[in-house]
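Prompt: For my understanding, could you write out one protein's sequence and backbone structure tokens?
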Amino acid sequence: MRGEPVIAFVGLGANLGSAQLVVTQALQALDGLPGTRLLRRSGLYRSAPFEASGPDFINAVAALQTHLSAPDLLGALHGLEKAAGRTRPYPNAPRTLDLDLLLYGDARIDSPGLKVPHPRLMDRAFVLLPLAEIAPERIGVAQLGRVQGQDVVRIGI
């Protein structure tokens, strides 16, 4: 654990099983991580698979205040994925739960197991729209404009 808390943003997505329920439960589970509390969460969004296959995804973004280091937070996210039945048979496979560490304060991390900001953050409307909902200061109009053709719809709280 770290000394001072950091604000981190986590992207959530699922497209297998009861995806909406799983994402909602994962949002609650984030609040239960050691040294971590949920500050804000976006509404839920439905998106067509992007560079992936299977049914539509349910997505959201959460803002966390955490004392966990970035690698420890990523490990905790992977633990939540595993608890939800996540397997990784091939890249971009359909998934029961996907949790991505999008931003960790203002840190820039480029290690073999962790890249922050998330390397594809600015390419994905299903991340940018919910992130802009809870942290508009983090996303510019031009960034949103670059992904406006992607099929993403806000479906609820």
Q: What stands out?
A: Strands lie at 6-14, 36-41, 44-47, 57-66, 98-104, 109-111, 114-116, 152-156.
